[in-house]
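A quick aside before the break. I want you to see a complete sequence-to-structure record at least once, exactly as it would be stored in a machine-readable document. Don't worry about memorizing anything.
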Amino acid sequence: MPAEKPTPKSDAELLLAASQGSHAAFETLYLRHRQMVLEFVGRRDRSLDCHAAEDVVADVFLRLWKKKQSLPSVQNINSYLIGIVKNILTSRLRSSRYTVEPLFELVDPKSEGASNILEKESLLHEFSLALAALPESHRRAFELRERGLTVKQIAERTHRTEKAIERLLEKARSTLRATLRE
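That is the input. The structure line, written in C-alpha cells, reads:
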C-alpha cells in the first residue's frame, strides 16, 4: 500500500495542490484562513449578524474552489481572499438596495398566537391584492426581482434601461408600502 503524500505546508504548495483537485489541501487552506476572512467580513460590514457573516465566508471559499484552476497564479492568498470578500459584499450591497422590506415586519413581532397568524394571513391577502393592483410593468419588474434576478437581468429581459427598472421597482415598493400601511 503506497504511503499518502504529506499535505503541503506553504500556501503556495496548498494552492497548487488545491488547483489540482486536492480536497485535503483546500481544507487546510480553509482552516488556515477562515478566521481571518470572518474577522475581515465583520470589520468590513458591521451590519451583518454572525450567520450572515458565516454565509459570506462560505461564499468566499466556494468562489475560491470554483476558481481553483487559477490558484497557482495567486501570489498572496490573504489579499486574494480579501478581494473576494469585497466583491461579495459589494454585490450584496447593490442587490440589497432593491429589496423590499419583509412583509411581516409590518406585523408586531411580539404578538403571539392565533391573532398574529390571522393578522399575517390578512396582511398577505392585502399584499396579494395590492400587488395585483400595480400596473403590469411595475408588477412584472417587482416579481422578477423577488425571483432573484438582478436589475441588469430584468432590464435585459424587459428591454428597458437599468434606470427605468430601478424607478419601476421603487414605485412598486412605495405603492405596496403605502397600501399596506393604510
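Two observations worth writing down. The chain has eight helices and no strands. Helices lie at 11-19, 23-44, 50-66, 77-96, 113-133, 136-146, 151-158, 162-181. We'll return to this after the break.
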